Amino acid sequence: xxxxxxxxxxxxxxxxxxxxxxxxxxxxxxxxxxxxxxxxxxxxxxxxxxxxxxxxxxxxxxxxxxxxxxxxxxxxxxxxxxxxxxxxxx
Length: 90
Ligand code: SF4
Ligand code: SF4
Prior knowledge:
Elements: E1 4-7, H1 17-21, E2 28-31, E3 36-39, H2 49-53, E4 59-62, H3 64-68, H4 74-77, H5 79-82
Antiparallel strand pairs: 1-4, 2-3
The structure holds iron/sulfur cluster (2 copies).
One iron/sulfur cluster binds near residues 12, 14, 15, 37 and 58.
């Protein structure tokens, strides 16, 4: 099942945390003109890391529930990993 990340533009604040977290370079790009990110869905592996780290809930991965077969949501799956990521003060 194909899974690809999508960003909800209205929710994205342009913090770029997803770019630094994505294991593949250049899948998520920062669009300077609108100060938000864009995802190259064709190159996305659907790992869900960007969903887990996004502080605004702006990232979704279509088909993620299908490939995890009802497994934990990305936020739960990467809990240990996420606790090691430095966070900027709100
Ligand atoms: S982590 Fe979320 S809010 Fe930050 S740039 Fe990525 S999609 Fe936007
Ligand atoms: S789902 Fe994984 S590969 Fe796809 S954009 Fe998010 S972090 Fe990158």
